[in-house]
């Protein structure tokens, strides 16, 4: 690879990082605005849960469609379209003045939330298997950093510029800018280009989507364990995203400044955990195909332990609560980049967007109901009980699902490498 090509692929990483950072800011900052928006529309916890579940349900339904489109057509053009939709729907969400209108337009913001499989598979065609974990870790820094930026915008900037609607106008406008940048600045890459078997080939066959290969996704046992952990694993993230700020304010007695100075360091540690998880997964993967799975299983188990210790900490022990939340943040994201890389370790290039979309579909099929479930438990008991029960139970389930994948990953990964080698010989 020439220096120019190497520099360009890092330019693509930078563009996608800012796409994800600004999109995640737009998507996640609503959790920090729960009190403001709930007061505007006079919402209870159930109504708030429905608002957030609406977008998740729309995203869930559209994941298979986005995945299929990404495997059939230009991923760069579709990503540009997704960014445009993000900007337009966020503007609509800021305009409406009734709860029904807000519920509908917030659900429409889920259309572009299911657009990430194309981004990840395009990156997989720029970077080979031994680098993907780190690159996905870098990109996924955008999620917690977007959460932090959204928190700052919601708690500090919004009161100064006219409230939460003004912030939505800003982030929606940035979505339109990013759409133009992706459309004109990012080049499509042949599917499978970065696989090691094709590394020294000047030209290579174009791999096209086929239903036969799509069906093979479901014959790989590793993918079934990936699907199961995905279904359970996103519950905690949605609970924390949409309810944790209200928990800190209403049940632990934090004011806006206290929330910011407690959560900002936690989120920064969380951000670092994405890259650390990806890097550890890549390192372990060099020694064994099980490496990424081992790192992931350790992450969810220790994440559950420290979340339990944090939530059960007495309210007046703020330093102890802060320490346990920092420890939770270290381990929570270790599995994220490794799950994506694992999907691509066992599936062929031309159906990877579909495979990733199916995984996200199954994730969101469960996670879409996490805010509703949390709202019901919180109204029946309290937010502490809801957060504690859902987070610890689902992460422990994920640990056992990862244990299952440890016994299947060697065969599935070996089968893919043999298939790629056969294709390389045929060219």
Description:
The chain has helices at residues 3-28, 34-41, 45-72, 75-95, 99-108, 116-124, 129-140, 142-157, 164-185, 211-216, 221-250, 256-287, 291-311, 318-331, 336-346, 352-367, 370-380, 383-406, 409-426. The chain is mainly alpha-helical. The protein has one domain: MFS general substrate transporter like domains (Growth Hormone, Chain: A), CATH 1.20.1250.
Task: Kindly provide the radius of gyration, computed on alpha-carbon positions and rounded to a whole number of angstroms.
Answer: 21 Å
Under the CATH scheme, which architecture would be assigned? Answer: Up-down Bundle
**Overall mean confidence score, pLDDT:** 88
- Segments where pLDDT lies below 50 for 5+ residues? none
- The strand count comes to 0
**Terminal Cα span:** 20 Å
Tally the helices: what do you get? 19
What would CATH call the class?
Answer: Mainly Alpha
CATH superfamily: MFS general substrate transporter like domains
- SSE pattern, N- to C-terminal: HHHHHHHHHHHHHHHHHHH
CATH fold-level assignment? Growth Hormone, Chain: A
Shape: globular
């Amino acid at each position: 690879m020439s220096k120019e090509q190497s520099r360009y692929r890092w330019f693509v990483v930078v563009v996608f990082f800012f796409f994800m950072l600004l999109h995640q800011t737009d998507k996640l900052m609503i959790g920090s605005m729960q009190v403001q928006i709930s007061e505007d529309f006079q919402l209870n916890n159930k109504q708030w849960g429905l608002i957030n579940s609406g977008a998740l349900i729309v995203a869930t339904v559209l994941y298979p469609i986005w995945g299929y489109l990404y495997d059939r057509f230009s991923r760069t053009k579709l990503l540009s379209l997704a960014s445009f939709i993000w900007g337009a729907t966020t503007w609509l969400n800021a305009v409406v003045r009734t709860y029904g209108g807000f519920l509908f337009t917030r659900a429409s913001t889920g259309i572009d939330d299911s657009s990430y499989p194309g981004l990840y598979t395009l990156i997989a065609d720029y970077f080979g298997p031994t680098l993907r974990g780190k690159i996905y870790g870098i990109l996924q820094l955008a999620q917690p950093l977007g959460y932090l930026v959204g928190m700052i915008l919601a708690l500090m900037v919004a009161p100064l510029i006219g409230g939460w609607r003004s912030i939505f106008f800003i982030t929606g406008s940035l979505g339109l800018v990013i759409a133009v940048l992706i459309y004109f600045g990012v080049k499509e890459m042949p599917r499978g280009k970065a696989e090691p078997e094709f590394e020294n080939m000047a030209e290579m066959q174009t791999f096209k989507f086929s239903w036969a290969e799509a069906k093979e996704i479901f014959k790989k046992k590793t993918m079934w364990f990936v699907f199961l952990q995905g279904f359970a694993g996103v519950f905690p993230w949605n609970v924390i995203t949409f309810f944790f700020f209200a928990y800190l304010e209403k049940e632990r007695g934090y004011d806006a400044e206290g929330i910011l100075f407690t959560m900002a360091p936690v989120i920064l540690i969380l951000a670092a955990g994405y890259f650390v998880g990806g890097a550890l997964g890549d390192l372990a993967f060099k020694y064994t195909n099980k490496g990424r799975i081992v790192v992931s299983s350790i992450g969810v188990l220790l994440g559950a332990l420290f979340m339990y210790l944090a939530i059960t900490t007495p309210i007046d022990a703020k330093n102890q609560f802060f320490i346990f939340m920092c420890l939770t943040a270290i381990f929570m994201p270790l599995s994220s980049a490794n799950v994506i890389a694992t999907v691509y370790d066992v599936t062929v290039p031309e159906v990877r967007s579909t495979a990733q979309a199916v995984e996200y579909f199954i994730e969101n099929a469960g996670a879409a109901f996490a805010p509703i479930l949390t709202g019901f438990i919180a109204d029946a008991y309290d937010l502490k009980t809801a957060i504690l029960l859902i987070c610890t139970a689902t992460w422990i389930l994920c640990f056992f699902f990862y244990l299952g994948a440890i016994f299947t990953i060697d065969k599935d990964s070996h089968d893919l490498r043999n298939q790629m080698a056969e294709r390389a010989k045929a060219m």
